[in-house]
Amino acid sequence: xxxxxxxxxxxxxxxxxxxxxxxxxxxxxxxxxxxxxxxxxxxxxxxxxxxxxxxxxxxxxxxxxxxxxxxxxxxxxxxxxxxxxxxxxxxxxxxxxxxxxxxxxxxxxxxxxxxxxxxxxxxxxxxxxxxxxxxxxxxxxxxxxxxxxxxxxxxxxxxxxxxxxxxxxxxxxxxxxxxxxxxxxxxxxxxxxxxxxxxxxxxxxxxxxxxxxxxxxxxxxxxxxxxxxxxxxxxxxxxxxxxxxxxxxxxxxxxxxxxxxxxxxxxxxxxxxxxxxxxxxxxxxxxxxxxxxxxxxxxxxxxxxxxxxxxxxxxxxxxxxxxxxxxxxxxxxxxxxxxxxxxxxxxxxxxxxxxxxxxxxxxxxxxxxxxxxxxxxxxxxxxxxxxxxxxxxxxxxxxxxx
Length: 402
Ligand code: UQ1
Hints:
Blueprint: E1 2-8, H1 12-24, E2 30-33, E3 38-40, H2 45-49, E4 59-61, H3 62-65, E5 71-73, E6 77-81, E7 86-89, E8 94-102, E9 107-108, H4 116-119, E10 125-126, H5 131-143, E11 147-153, H6 163-178, E12 182-188, H7 197-210, E13 213-215, E14 218-224, E15 229-235, E16 241-247, E17 250-252, E18 257-258, H8 261-264, E19 290-292, H9 305-324, E20 336-343, E21 346-353, E22 357-358, H10 371-389
Parallel strand pairs: 1-2, 1-8, 2-5, 8-19, 10-17, 11-12, 11-17, 12-13
Antiparallel strand pairs: 3-4, 6-7, 7-8, 9-18, 14-15, 15-16, 20-21, 21-22
Helix pairs in contact: 1-9
The protein binds ubiquinone-1.
């Protein structure tokens, strides 16, 4: 097989960039490689876990998402050979390209927590990171009769760093409304609530509002579902690590995450395993006919759908400029957005760019929890995703430094 442009990954980033390219230049010959039948709108998984979104509305068939006139190769990449502009897929075929766009997303490393794979989806062990387990999250919250509810966050980088606490606030809100007496405990590997100080400070207030106990630098390492016990590695003030076992009635686990194994093992990766691209142009550091975007890249932005939405037109414009021999000059500023769900009717909208610079879209205090942002999270962002972003429409709402 041979295509002018090959896109590895048909998720948010891959579909958006292919659609954006096609919209700019109909005659481009593009193929997307992705093994999955189903395309998920993952940002809604938080709401599914909180019982506020129809699980069936989070996904569509992948073939309905791939742009018209873009070829879908339903297969998995086995290996890259960027020196020779080709790659191999699991079926054994070789795919050649002139230009390569790499956006396979981030890998969930369930197996890095001892005992997790055996118990996830039962025994009160839930996780919003796969749809069936997100549905089980809601079952756990709804049927919780009081007791201990644990929530975990693994070391960075993870996609949407706010997600591990969003589901906790939805749970705490529900317990409060139903009058269930709950001890809610957040165990996060990080030393802070959020990477951007302005929001970290504001989130302290939310934690207090619910009476949640937060344990920083506390990392889930093992879980025994039948015994309802979870083991954490906790780093003390002296840097000393010790193990703490906590019992639970329910636990929401955010799995450790890393670059996909087939990227880690490829010449495209940096030392940490991520697709090694320039943070502004998104062009590969060593292969100038290769670009990367989405959760799998080395760039230090927040790994969110909003980031992929703004990266897609940068890659599309830079690649078209490259093909036509004109100057580049389109730069991604690191924008990412994290609608921090703080209850069943409020959201704090965290928007920021490289360096943790707060860059709101709306001229409102970004640390305030708002019902209007809840409505956007539940209704407008999914609409924006399916009908604007995945259709390759570059809708650049300006965001400005605070
Ligand atoms: C956004 O663009 C987006 O993308 C597709 C989301 O996806 C889920 C978001 O949650 C947010 C907040 C944005 C940012 C867009 C605006 C209008 C603030």
